[in-house]
Structure formats: structure tokens, C-alpha cells
């Protein structure tokens, strides 16, 4: 979603801001803008559409400066217009960029109007600009004005502010949305995401809730919510520039699909190094937290939720622990009967999805102190709010449609399952060794599935003209059908639904005709014969089926039944291997339809608003 970058330097920062905004494009946005202090004046350029259009406009206007802020906006309050794009200014003196939502913006707007401020946009952000300006008018310097304004703002925000009254300074504030400082030599930076500044510096400070920060070229001072000067640890970011570059691929999604063998190998590295499923994989005090749990409650959104649904099958079957999985945005507003002996597991690629964060906070308020975050972004908000953490090591995921984050989440969840099983005395040594071996083989099996790409591509051409598609799976492969349908609709805009195959005749069968492609995930597991019967039900109604079956499934092909054979059955890890062909199908169908694969319309990578 929205992204922030700011820079103060002895050189022209406009290229730094533009480069930073380009690196934030992956988050999803619909307009972009920068504001700089040039010769004592605030100069601003904003455009709807791509950062490149805004960049061209900035070039045409000859904008150069040593201090500036930039933003990519994903519309929430007010439509996609230039007037609503950030930065927002007050009296041409002060400019603000903002991520998040100001909940009391209506009340503040009325108050500020009464004080004589006029509004040019429909955004909640403009309220911040005027509020800070108002506090400056009361005699505060920029830092004190931002701190005073922050006290009056309710909601979630990360902001960066510059003012022509203090041209050697940039101020930031964070509450509920990520904001970090980049430390350079004689130059400093602000960003909502490390990828925006990694080209300039790897030394970063993650701000905490309620922090404000004062940046000059020479130094950075951080203040906590009470206004006290504090020291925050400096980290060296290991985000690799290579993971932010496209390399030989056409799209980040394609690149990330192909990175899965490596991402999985990296994620299981610690398990293999330990030669077993030890609680310490989840944190130093994990044994105490995981030892006596009575159940698992998984909370997540989107693709991460489907990872959770898959894990439920493993956790109940292998560890013998009751497990529920719930969409975070539902859980957080529900009256929940909490059992503090249940482990709350949040799954989030970004670690900053607002609903997942709020669901975690709600769970903690109900007495859940056994919390585990499965996350791909070190030091992001959700792992920092959790007692335990398992970092997937997928590397930066840029494509909006999650791929390598999903399969590495599954690996992490399988590791959790085996660890819980072992702690409960349900994992015999021989079985543990067998599962470890399965994990070791997994990158190879995933690579084998990737090699099916040319066959999947042929299928995708038949999908491209369709309006609808149905995905079927059973048992642990049902969530993979859900994920396949989600991928297809996200990036190709073909309407797709997934059903447990046994549910077919309770409704979706009515949709089946010669125009409805039916994708079936049918590995050789205990439910294979049931799936085969379900397939007959589709066949009898003239439906055309596209079956992903492993080599052991023994499916016959016919005019109506097309089969792609995935690798030999890989046992419990089969859902991970079967994720690959459905990702490829969505990718190639989208390519054939000519959609913007990495930046599908209306969607964002990190959903930091409700
Ligand atoms: C958005 C993204 C999805 C992602 C979901 C949850 O909808 O487009 O790809 O699965 O958010 O994000 P998270 O970062 O919490 O896993």
C-alpha cells in the first residue's frame, strides 16, 4: 500500500526519492508525488498513475533539492486524483506524506476549518498538514509541532514532514504503521520500507510505536511517546539488491515462482542444521511457550490465511493438537471465547498487515500470551509484538500475488507441526528422520514441478478467454485449490471459485457446462478415489477438466480430461509441490490476457489499512 521515502543530504535528493518510490511500487499504489525544499520554497510534483510519470514531470520542472519527501498513494479517503495525491501542504509552507488512516479526521477538519484553514483534498492526510502548521503558529518548532499534532491524531500513521521555516530538518512520526530511519554519511533518510533506501544505506533504525524522529544531515534524534530522547538499536539490513531487481525475468511474480527451491532450502536450513525439530527454532524460550499448549489458533489474511488452512490438516493429524484458523479481520471484531493455553499463530509475509496485527493485539488483550509470528520481514511489527517468531527466508517478495512467501510459510508451519508433535511425544525418531528427509527432498520436487511450466503454459491459453473457473481439491489439497483460485482471480481477473470436491454436488455443479474449466488437484493420497468420483460428476455434465495429478495417481486422459503429472507423490508435503502448477497457471493466464501481473488493479502488497 502507500509508501514513504524522505532524504536530507548534501547532494540532490530528487533521484534518491524517485528511486525509492520506484522500489516501493510493488506495494500497490495509484498516484505518486514528491515535495522538496528548494531555495527556501516548498516545491511539489504529483501525478496519478506511475512514478515514472511523476518523475518526468519533476524533470520537466527542473526540480533539484537537498531535502525532500516522496509518497506512493493507494486511495482510501477520496478518489484517485492529483489533488488527493501526497504530499499535502499547508499554506505552501509545510509538506506532509502519510501512510495509514486518521480516524478522527472529520472532527479535526471541522476544528481546523474554524481556525481558518481551507482544504484542497478529500484526504485525512491534509488534516495532519494543517494541524502541524497550526502548532507551528503557536510558536512550536517543527519537532514540537509534530509531537503536539501526534497527540491529537487517532488512528494509524507513519508521517514525514518538512517545513520551509526549518530547511535543514525533516521530522517523522510513527503510530501503528512502519517507519524507519536510514543512516548515511552526512545524509539521512526516512522510509516506510527498507527497500526504498537500501540503495543509499543499509544502516537502519526501526522506529517504535509513538516515536518521533528529528533528522538533519548530521544526526538523528529519536523521542518516545512521552517525548523523552531514546536510543534505538541500529540494524544492518540484509535485504539484497538482487531480490529487488528483475534480472532475466519478465515479471517479479515469475522470478519469485522460480526462486522457490532456493527460498525453501533457505527456510529449512536451520531445521536441517539442527538435524531435527527443536523448539529453539522458534525462539530462546519456545519450549516453555509451546510445551503445554492445548490448542492452536491461527490468524491471517489472504494467501497467508490459506497457508494456515493447510497447516490445520497437519497440526491435527500429526501433532494431535486442535487447531482453528480464522481470517484476522473477522476474529478481531468477534466475541471470542479465549483459552490462554492456546497458541496464537499469526502468519504474515509482510509482518505489517493491519488486520492481522490488530487481531494479535485483541488476542493478547484476551489473555493470550503464547504467541508466534510466522513472517518474512525481519523486525516488522507483527513479529516484534509476538513472543516467538519463525522467519521464512523467502527474500523480498515484490509481486503483489504471493508465491514464494506462501510455500515458505507452509514449510515453517510444517516445522511447527513436527515440533509440537515431538514435544507431545507423538513423533518417533524414525518418523522425525523421515520428515527431515522429506524436507531435504522438497526443493528438488519443487524444481521438478517448475519444469512443468511449458505444459501449464499450453493450458493457460485455453483459460485466457474464459470468464470463470472452478478449482477443486480435497483434504489438505483443498486450501491449495483455494490458493489457486485466488491467484487466478488476482492477476488474470478471471472469476474463480474453489470448493472441496465433495461439496460439488451441493451447489457448484450447477455452474458446470462446456464453458466452465474445472481445475482439479488430485494427488495420490487417501482421498484420490473420492476425487476421481467427483471428476466423473463433472464429466457427466460436459465439463472440461484440467487435472494436476502426481505420477502415482494413474489418471486416464480423454478429450474432456487433461492431465499434467506433477512429481512422484511426496507424502505430507504434497500441498507445497501442488502450489507450483496453480501459480504457473495463474501467471500464464494473466500473461495471455495482458494484465499487469506484478501490480494487479486495485490490489496492494501490504494492506496497512482496514
Ligand atoms: C494482500 C496481498 C496478499 C497477501 C495478503 C496478506 O492481500 O496482496 O498477497 O496474502 O495481503 O498479507 P501478509 O503480508 O499479511 O501475508
Automatic annotation (TrEMBL):
Transmembrane segments: none annotated. One of its GO terms (cellular component) is cytosol. It is found in: Cytoplasm. One of its GO terms (biological process) is protein N-linked glycosylation. Its EC number is 2.6.1.16. Residues 2-218 form the Glutamine amidotransferase type-2 domain. It catalyses: D-fructose 6-phosphate + L-glutamine = D-glucosamine 6-phosphate + L-glutamate. Gene3D superfamilies: Glucose-6-phosphate isomerase like protein, domain 1, Glutamine Phosphoribosylpyrophosphate, subunit 1, domain 1. Residues 286-426, 459-600 form the SIS domain. It is an enzyme of class 2 (transferase). InterPro entries: GATase_2_dom, GFAT, GFAT_N, GlmS/AgaS_SIS, GlmS/FrlB_SIS, Ntn_hydrolases_N, SIS_dom, SIS_dom_sf. The active site is at 2 (nucleophile), 605 (for fru-6p isomerization activity). SUPFAM superfamilies: N-terminal nucleophile aminohydrolases (Ntn hydrolases), SIS domain. One of its GO terms (molecular function) is glutamine-fructose-6-phosphate transaminase (isomerizing) activity. PANTHER family: GLUCOSAMINE--FRUCTOSE-6-PHOSPHATE AMINOTRANSFERASE, ISOMERIZING (PTHR10937), GLUTAMINE--FRUCTOSE-6-PHOSPHATE TRANSAMINASE (ISOMERIZING) (PTHR10937:SF0). Catalyzes the first step in hexosamine metabolism, converting fructose-6P into glucosamine-6P using glutamine as a nitrogen source. Homodimer. This is Glutamine--fructose-6-phosphate aminotransferase [isomerizing]. It comes from Aerolutibacter ruishenii. The gene is glmS.
Amino acid at each position: 500500500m502507500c509508501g514513504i521515502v524522505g532524504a536530507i543530504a548534501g547532494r540532490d535528493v530528487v533521484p534518491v526519492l524517485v528511486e525509492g518510490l520506484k522500489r516501493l511500487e510493488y506495494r500497490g499504489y495509484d498516484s505518486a508525488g514528491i515535495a522538496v525544499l528548494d531555495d527556501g520554497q516548498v516545491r511539489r510534483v504529483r501525478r496519478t498513475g506511475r512514478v515514472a510519470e511523476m518523475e518526468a514531470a519533476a524533470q520537466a520542472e527542473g526540480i533539484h533539492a537537498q531535502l525532500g519527501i516522496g509518497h506512493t498513494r493507494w486511495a482510501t479517503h477520496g478518489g484517485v486524483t492529483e489533488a488527493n495525491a501526497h504530499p499535502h501542504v499547508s499554506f505552501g509552507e509545510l509538506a506532509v506524506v502519510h501512510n495509514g488512516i486518521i480516524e478522527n479526521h472529520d472532527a479535526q477538519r471541522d476544528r481546523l476549518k474554524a481556525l481558518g484553514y481551507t482544504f484542497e483534498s478529500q484526504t485525512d492526510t491534509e488534516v495532519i498538514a494543517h494541524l502541524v502548521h497550526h502548532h507551528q503558529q503557536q510558536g512550536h518548532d517543527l519537532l514540537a509541532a509534530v509531537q503536539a499534532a501526534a497527540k491529537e491524531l487517532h488512528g494509524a500513521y507513519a508521517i514525514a514532514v518538512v517545513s520551509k521555516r526549518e530547511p535543514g530538518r525533516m521530522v517523522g512520526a510513527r503510530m501503528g504503521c512502519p517507519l524507519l530511519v536510514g543512516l548515511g554519511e552526512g545524509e539521512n533518510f526516512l522510509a516506510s520500507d527498507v527497500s526504498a533506501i537500501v540503495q543509499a544505506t543499509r544502516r537502519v533504525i526501526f522506529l517504535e510505536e509513538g516515536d518521533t524522529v528529528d533528522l538533519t544531515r548530521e544526526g538523528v534524534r529519536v523521542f518516545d511517546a512521552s517525548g523523552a530522547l531514546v536510543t534505538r538499536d541500529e540494524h544492518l539490513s540484509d535485504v539484497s539488491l538482487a531480490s529487488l531487481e528483475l534480472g532475466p525475468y519478465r515479471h517479479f511474480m515469475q522470478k519469485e515462482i522460480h526462486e522457490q527451491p532456493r527460498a525453501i532450502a533457505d527456510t529449512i536450513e536451520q531445521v536441517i542444521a539442527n538435524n531435527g525439530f527443536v523448539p529453539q527454532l522458534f525462539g530462546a524460550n519456545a519450549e516453555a511457550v509451546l510445551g503445554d499448549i492445548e490448542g492452536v489458533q491461527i490468524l491471517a489474511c489472504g494467501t497467508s490465511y490459506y497457508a494456515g488452512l493447510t497447516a490445520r490438516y497437519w497440526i491435527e493429524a500429526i501433532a494431535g493438537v486442535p487447531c482453528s484458523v480464522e481470517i484476522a479481520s473477522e476474529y478481531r471484531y468477534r466475541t471470542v471465547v479465549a483459552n490462554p493455553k492456546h497458541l496464537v499463530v499469526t502468519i504474515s509475509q509482510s509482518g505489517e498487515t493491519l488486520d492481522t496485527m490488530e487481531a494479535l493485539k485483541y488476542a493478547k488483550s484476551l489473555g493470550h500470551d503464547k504467541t508466534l509470528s510466522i513472517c518474512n520481514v525481519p523486525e516488522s511489527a507483527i513479529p516484534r509484538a509476538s513472543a516467538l517468531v519463525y522467519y521464512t527466508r523467502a527474500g523480498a517478495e515484490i509481486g503483489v500475488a504471493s508465491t514464494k512467501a506462501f510455500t515458505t510459510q507452509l514449510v515453517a508451519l510444517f516445522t511447527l507441526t513436527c515440533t509440537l508433535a515431538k514435544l507431545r511425544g507423538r513423533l518417533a525418531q524414525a518418523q522425525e528422520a523421515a520428515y527431515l528427509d522429506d524436507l531435504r527432498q522438497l526443493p528438488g520436487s519443487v524444481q521438478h514441478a517448475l519444469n512443468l511450466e511449458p505444459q501449464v503454459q499450453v493450458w493457460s491459453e485455453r483459460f485466457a478467454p474464459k470468464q470463470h473457473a472452478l478449482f477443486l481439491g480435497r483434504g489438505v489439497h483443498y486450501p491449495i485449490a483455494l490458493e489457486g483460485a485466488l491467484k487466478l482471480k488476482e492477476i488474470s481477473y478471471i472469476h474463480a471459485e474453489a470448493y472441496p470436491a465433495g461439496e460439488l454436488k451441493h451447489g457448484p455443479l450447477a455452474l458446470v457446462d462446456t464453458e466452465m474449466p474445472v481445475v482439479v488437484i488430485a494427488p495420490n493420497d487417501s482421498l484420490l478415489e473420492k476425487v476421481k468420483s467427483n471428476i466423473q460428476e463433472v464429466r457427466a455434465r460436459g465439463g472440461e477438466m484440467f487435472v494436476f495429478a502426481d505420477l502415482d495417481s494413474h489418471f486416464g486422459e480423454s478429450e474432456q480430461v487433461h492431465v499434467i503429472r506433477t512429481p512422484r507423490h511426496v507424502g505430507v508435503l504434497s500441498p507445497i509441490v501442488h502450489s507450483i502448477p496453480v501459480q504457473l497457471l495463474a501467471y500464464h493466464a494473466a500473461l495471455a490476457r495482458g494484465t499487469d501481473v506484478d501490480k494487479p488493479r486495485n490490489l496492494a502488497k501490504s494492506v496497512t489499512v482496514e
